[in-house]
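Quick note —
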Amino acid sequence: MKLNPYLMFNGQCEAAFKFYEQCLGGKIAAMMTYGETPKESPMAEQVSPGLQDKIMHVHLTVDDWELMGSDSPSEYYEEPKGFSVSLNIDNLVEAERIFHTLAENGKVQMPLQQTFWADGFGMLVDRFGTPWMINCGQSAG
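Predicted structure written out below.
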């Protein structure tokens, strides 16, 4: 079994995943718009004109984990709440870089700081509305 976060956006999915690809050092393995739905698919007839250029599915790989997402039809979109995408990073310098990059034009909920369990831990909501927790484990010593 594999557990993967799947993020829903209100029209910003492509921009968000291109940002995540750069920030996290990942690779977008697949990205398909609603307009690219095969014409023979029954779903092709159900795609509203406003969704043609929006993302139906995107798949980002970063090392051995995956992050997926899509644009939700606006009438079904709900802001993310009650969860965070958690990143566990071994290197504090890299954790700081990722935290500050994700925080650009977003909202820091808890600055990245040393805690009793980690050399660095922080929480933020990025400019696309995705909540993140960044954790960097304690070094030996």
